[in-house]
Amino acid sequence: MSDAPIGVFDSGVGGLTVLKALAGELPGEQFIYLGDTARLPYGTKSPETVSRYAVQAAEALASYDIKALVVACNTASAASLPAIREKLKGMPVIGVIEPGADAACRVSKTGNIAVIATEATVRGGAYQEAIQRLRPDARVSARATQLFVALAEEGMHEGPIAESVARHYLTSLFALPGAPSGAGAAPSALVPGGAVPAVPDTLVLGCTHFPMLAGAIRAAIGTRVRIVDSAATTAKAVRDRLGSLLRASPARRSSVRFLATDSPERFARVGSRFLGQTIAPSDVELIDL
Question: How far from each other are the two terminal CA atoms of the chain, in whole angstroms?
Fold first, then answer.
């Protein structure tokens, strides 16, 4: 069983940032990655639809005799983990929200935490609930930043356009109450007459696309805010969770089998940016869910 592959699922190519982190954290493991590219984006769909799609993808990956499933999609993690675990009884199923929430609670000094994600993830409140369950004193601000997804997909994650969009979404979130437009604040700043931090000191990237925009996001929020990348935290959680299920004699390097439900050519072109290495269209198998 330890030689079986790890399944990784996302609605598209965003989860390749999680796969990249997994390959770095678990060198020598074998992976099967499924992008449900025919039905993306999940971030604007209802929770019921997302859960139905995610369960179908999970069952498809389970048919490849995987030893664990990583739901590398924040929207699917928020809407479908209980349903997936019910279908894949006995198999470890790890989402991206709990690891990200746990890391944010541990690194935040003030408990004032911001989350940026898709509309569905913010609306569902999964990060807010997870953070406050782990740290009841936390103050969580969540904001939907849907345009970040398009910028990452189109390769416009760097430069003046990305930085302008990042400022549009984030400046007010990290500004002191009453401060002039565009004025930021140090995380240690206090509200008048009190000791409660006025702005978040930690930002959770609650979508697997968003690590691509880390530079633009950092430029918008300054250097004092801690950024939590749910891809990296998920990879560490998978390592800790699998333990004895990891390969006893790992190969020299990880290998990946790519599956997509539509357009292997686009998957390969866009996915190469997210993974940080070239994916050939011929390496992407087209499947039907």
Answer: 26
